[in-house]
Amino acid sequence: MCTIGSLKSQVVHNKIIFKILHDEDTLELLNGEEREFVRKHIPYTGLFKGDEKIFEDVLKNKDKYIMKPYDLNASRGVFAGRDLSPEEWKERLEKVWNKDYIYQEFVTPYTREFVVFTDEGVCKEEFGTITGLYMYNEKLAGLYTRIGKYSIISAASEYYTLPNLLVR
């Protein structure tokens, strides 16, 4: 078994992995098909620090980005530009500039209708979805699906966890 850091490390959990996957040094290690996969399926991610041009780009393009701390869970500290006024966006960006934050292209979740049970009866409502794929020994081992009505689908906002069925 090969480990990076101690067994307690969370290399894949840490959001900096998304930035590393887009680094030219990393892309050079991948074949053409793997590079294309990264470009098509991993939102562009950068460190929110250093060059003031980064701050200005993120500030001016608030609906394009979501901000995330490197290594917190349950969406703590995460905020999306599309959910904030320009003034709120600027204020939050100033607080996290040159801290342990990444900026990432915002990806609009796939939406579909789900049945909802209310006190008034049954209806259909549209929700955004996020599905996680779990692998073990290079094989699909499970699914995890969350749905919600906000830009951030997690414990930071009202969301639901769905059961998943694999039918063969």
Structural features, described:
The chain has 168 residues and is an alpha+beta fold. It has 2 domains: 16-105; 110-162, no CATH class. The protein contains 5 helices and 8 strands; from the N terminus they run αααβαββαβββββ. It has a 4-stranded antiparallel β-sheet with strand order 1-4-2-3. A 4-stranded antiparallel β-sheet has the order 5-6-7-8, with no helix packed on it. The model has no long low-confidence stretch (mean pLDDT 88).
How would the blueprint of this fold be written?
Elements: H1 16-22, H2 24-29, H3 32-41, E1 45-47, H4 52-60, E2 65-69, E3 79-80, H5 86-96, E4 101-105, E5 110-118, E6 121-136, E7 139-148, E8 159-162
Antiparallel strand pairs: 1-4, 2-3, 2-4, 5-6, 6-7, 7-8
What keyword list fits this structure?
four-stranded antiparallel sheet; alpha+beta; 2 domains; 26% helix; 168 residues; flat; 5 helices
